[in-house]
Structures are given as structure tokens and as C-alpha cells.
Amino acid sequence: MTETNGVFDESFLHKYRQLLDAEDIAFDELEHAYEDGDRSHFESDLSEWKSVVGRRLAFLERHGLATEAPGLRSFT
Asked: CA 8, CA 28: separation in Å to the nearest integer?
């Protein structure tokens, strides 16, 4: 576990921040494709965003922090 006295270590926070940044970037791309009406890019960007969200959830689950929320796993 990456927890010490109830506080997460720097390595855990760094990796989680990277995953959040990747999710933010992927969502921005998805949003642009939607706004532009670009169906082919939207489909590929949606797939990428789902993948990134899946990696973030898997990371949290590996550290015992994520619980299965209704509907979250159905799209990954």
C-alpha cells in the first residue's frame, strides 16, 4: 500500500495526477470532435477517453480506493 499514517506518498500522488491529466486531455479531444461534428474522430476519441478512465479506475482499485459504482464499468 502506498499509504503512510493515512497520507498517500508522493509517488502515488504523482501517478494519480498523471492519470487525471491524461483523462483531461482525452476529454478535451473528445469535446472538440463533438463540437466539430467529426464522427470518426469522436469515435476514436471516445475510445481513448474510455481507456484512460479505465486505467485511472484500475489504479485506484489496485490501491484499494475505488468501489464499483453503478454504470462506471459498463462503458470501459
From this structure: 28
Task: Work out whether the CA dihedral 17, 51, 74, 46 comes out positive or negative.
Answer: positive
CA 47, 12, 68, 32 dihedral sign is negative
Three-state DSSP class for residue 73: helix
C-alpha cell at 69: 459504482
Q: In DSSP terms, which residues pair with 3 in a beta bridge?
A: 8
Per-residue model confidence as pLDDT tens digits over 1-35 = 455 555 688 999 999 999 999 999 999 999 999 99
